[in-house]
Amino acid sequence: EHHNRGMVPRWIVGAAFEIGALAVVRESDCDRLSDFDPGNVIPLLDTTTSFDSPMVQSASIVSVLDGPDVLGAVSSLKQERPDRIVCVRVPVTRQIVERTRRLSGEGVEVINIAFDWGGRELESSKPRHMRDIIPEVHLALTKDGVRDELTLLSSGGVVMAEHVAKAIICGVDLVAIDLPLAVALECRLCG
Q1: pTM beyond cutoff 0.85
Q2: Per-residue pLDDT reduced to its tens digit, 123-168
Q3: What secondary structure does DSSP assign to the chain, as a single string?
């Protein structure tokens, strides 16, 4: 997140627009991006957000950080616009399999399993790598008979183009890249 400051969100959205891609942007940065086509922006919301900014209102896809009231936020966003795709961004911890199972059981249609910048789980003294966790999540959802009913997205840990293909082979449908784009924009990395 250190690289996502200042003008960087604006550059990332501009690049996404140029290549026909999507850019996930924190809701707090959305007001500064009002001159961009909202079709290229996926606002990243906190469950405490009011969801009333114009960019959020017009977005056909939004992402919500996992938290205690995430299901209430998903419900509220879907009631507002039933055609809106709502993604829940879940930090990868030891409980990732149980958490994705619960969210899928509650009808969440897109789950973003978010690794650290190195593709490892968070909050662990011996963090596992995404190559081990993605198949575990994929197989658990397949065993539950719900894997084809949701989109599984992976973020974090992608440094080279081949990592995208490997993550898809391991079981995700989509892969988000952030750090390589920030490096390509010559951002300084902190921490």
Answers
A1: yes
A2: 889 999 999 999 999 999 999 999 999 999 999 988 888 999 999 9
A3: -TTS-TTHHHHHHHHHHHHT--EEEEHHHHGGGTTS-GGGEEEEE-TT----SHHHHH-SEEEEE--TTHHHHHHHHHHH-TT-EEEEEEE--TTHHHHHHHHHHTT-SEEEEE--TTSB-SS-SSPPBHHHHHHHHHHHHHHTT-GGGSEEEEES---SHHHHHHHHHHT-SEEE--HHHHHHTTPPP--
